[in-house]
Structures are given as C-alpha cells and as structure tokens.
Amino acid sequence: KMPPCDFVPEKYQSYAYDHMLKIRERNISPSLVTYYKKPLLLHQGYMQWLFDYEGRRYLDLFAGIVTVSVGHCHPKVTVATQKQLARLWHTTNIYMHPSIQEYAEKLTSFLPDPLKVVYLTNSGSEANDLAMFLARIYTRNFDIICFRGGYHGGSPYTLGVTSIGPYKHGIANGFGCSTTMLPDVFRGPWGGSHCRDSPVQTIRKCSCSEGVCHAKDQYIEQFKDTLNTCVPKTIAGFIAEPIQGVNGTVQYPKGFLKEAYQLVRERGGLCISDEVQTGFGRTGSHFWGFQTHDVVPDIVTMAKGIGNGFPMGAVVTTKEIASSLAQNLHFNTFGGNPVACVVGAAVLDAIEEDGLQKNSEEVGTYMLLEFAKLRDKFEIVGDVRGKGLMIGIEMVTNKGSCHPLPDEEISRIWEDCKDMGVLIGRGGLCRQTFRIKPPMCITKRDADFAVEVFRTALERHMERAAEK
Ligand code: PMP
Fold this sequence. Notes:
Protein name: Alanine--glyoxylate aminotransferase 2, mitochondrial
InterPro entries: Aminotrans_3, Aminotrans_3_PPA_site, PyrdxlP-dep_Trfase, PyrdxlP-dep_Trfase_major, PyrdxlP-dep_Trfase_small
Subcellular location: Mitochondrion
EC number: 2.6.1.18, 2.6.1.40, 2.6.1.44
Strand content: 5-15%
Order of helices and strands: HEEEHHHEHEHHEHEHEEEHHHEEHEEEH
Structural class: alpha/beta
Number of domains: 2
Number of strands: 15
CATH class of the largest domain: Alpha Beta
Largest sheet: 7 strands, mixed
Strand order of the largest sheet: 4-10-9-8-7-5-6
Bound molecules: 4'-deoxy-4'-aminopyridoxal-5'-phosphate
Subunit structure: Homotetramer.
C-alpha cells in the first residue's frame, strides 16, 4: 500500500501518457537504460518521490546514486537556480562572479581549519583526479594507496585507485597505485561484532577485549605491510572514503582511519577523504564522513550531494598544498559556473533550514534498526550496516556460509520492491548488497513503507524457495 500522497502538489501528479507512448515507440539506446529489466521511464520528481510515465509513484531510496541530497526539484533550490539561469550562465573562473566567491566562503564555513582553498569541478572523478594531482605535485612523490573495493571515478587517473576489477575493463593499470586490504568487519577474517560506528553491529564475532579492538589492530598490521613492502619509503598519498559506498556501504573498525592517517603522514603522504557519497550530512551525526573518524584530511573531495543532481564537484585543501599549483596554469572551463555555485549555496541552505543532517541521523537510525529486525528474521539477510542515511543490506545464501545470494534471486527481490513502489540501489565487489541512500528529506512514515515493502519482497522470495 502506498502512503497517501496529499503532500505532493497536484501539478507533479500529472501523467504524461502521450509522451510515454512516444518514447515507447522509439528505440531506446541500451547504453541509456540498463538498471531494471523493464526500463524505468521517469518523468517527474518531487522531494523523495519519483513518477514514471505510466503514472506510478516511487519512493526513491537511491537518490540518483546518492546524489539528490535535499529532494528532487526542491522548491527553494529550484527557484534560486531559475533566477540565476535568467541572469548569467557562464563566465569561467578566469573572471570573477560574486556567486563563486560567496559559494567558496559558504562551503569552507562547513570545513575545519586549515581546509580553506576551494577548486570547483564538474564531477567526483574530476575532483579526485585533481586531489591526486595535488598530492603528487605537493609531495613530489608518486605512489597513492587505496582500498580494495573502492570506487573513486571512471577517468584514467581515478580508475587507477578504483579497485573494483570489472570497472577497469581489463586495461586501466593504475600505474603508481597500490591497493591495500579492506578493513571490512563483515567479510574480513577477524570479524568485528562491536567494532563499527553504527547502531547495528555485525553478526561476525571478534575477539576484542575491553578498549582494544583486535580486528582494527590486525587491519593496521596489514596496512603497515602495504606501506613497508609494496611502495617506496615515501608516498604521495592515501585516498579513502569514510564509508565505502559503491562496494556496498562497507564500514571500517573504529579507530582504523585515524591510525592509518598517522602512518601515511609519517611517510610524507597526504590524506585524501573522498566525501563524494558521505558528505553533506548523509551520515547524520556529522556533516562530513571524516569527522566520524575524528580525523582532518589534507584534501577533501566532493560531488553528488553537493549539487542535488546538478553536475558539480569540488576539492578543498589547505593554502600550503594549494600553493604547489601555479595559479594561472590550472583552470576548468565549467568548474565554478555561476549556476552551479548558486545551486551549491541553495543546497547548503536547504540542509540547514530543513534540518536534514538531523533527519538523516534520526530516520537513518530508525531505518537501520528496523532493517536489523529483518536480518534477525530472514536467513538470507547477512548484514545490515551503515550510519545515518547511508545504509547497506548484504544478502547471502545463509548466515553460516555467507555466500553471496545468486544474482537472479537478488534481482527478483529488487524488481519486486520496484513493482511495489520502492527504488533501491545495488552494489558490491564479490558480494550482493542493497544500498539505501535516499534524499535526506525522507520521513519515518516513508521508512515504515520501505521496510514493509522489503519485508514483503523477502517473504515472496521465501515462498518461491519453498516451492522449488
Ligand atoms: N567517488 C565516489 C566515492 C563515488 O561514489 C563516485 C561515483 N559513484 C565517484 C567518486 C565518481 O564520481 P562521478 O561519477 O561524479 O565522476
């Protein structure tokens, strides 16, 4: 059952049947629609809701891959954007426009000292490209360390640290990039049943004693091993997300990142926090993911939620690191576009005015605990994890073996959720994870609806399995 939709303005409920028919008649390029078996043709969005051409409404739990942070067509962001579109679209950053300066000041007011220099880009890949470039020219070293399973972009530079094989299509070699073991308390060898910063802990037991995290210490040993044996004595940097996103919302043991940062700095490297998914209040307790690990990076990269769907990204670093980049020898034609700056500022306002970080924490915690009840009930739900509205649900054949649930079975559950009106993301490297990362304006009532739909899809799966 759909919750009532009285809060959606009528104009957003119109169904464009004629338009739908026209699109159906055309041959849609397979490169454009590949997610669901039957392509989902969307025509409108309003806050946490999406509408297809057949008049169906969906609760969007994936937010256009963790991007629509404050809600589809958020009224205030939309109006601010329209006003700027009528004034000035483009200057390039070789000219000054007040929106650029205002946005840079506003953005850095959300970041701790000494992170005060902003470079604006158009995407997360570009932001990470620039971050790695900065680390290399500042340190005059070349090697970058990254985690297995990390995704940092699809450009040749970032594919080197994107450590999910299929994305490389067999050719991106990542010269100067070393992949280190992922400190994953669910799939890793040392468990971690009370090691992660989440309201829900993993079922995988660990041998931690009070105050000492065994799993974290083991992973730190592995990290040291990479630093001591795989790379030169000095390195350019270490890039990591505070919670790994594309790979299925993987969380590290508490305290790991802080120690890893220290080890990297001892070898002259810079620490890059990829906040493309974890930034802008998504983890609830803090505005940035790195704050949940009690660290201050040297370079922070961001995209996705920064523009609520408008293509933009940013790199923020210190004055000292930025000084290594000759001012007139770095520019980006579209980065810092006045429209993007206005969108970015309106998104920051919306996060504050609508209390979205707090909402992320409250609704996220509520959802995590509700999904954890399903984990306790269903054998195929292996792990429920995350923080705020960054949630992963890992699906297994059974909790004993933890083998990933076969693809056809996962797809069926996922398609069933869609047919019942809930869009969920997928992810994982050698694992099967559902990703729940909705616009941060989602309510507890939506959460109840989502959990109910997911429970129904799991029950249907069990019925199918019993019939076999
Ligand atoms: N970093 C992370 C953590 C991401 O999830 C992504 C995109 N999935 C990127 C970087 C690359 O961003 P973009 O697709 O905007 O280039």
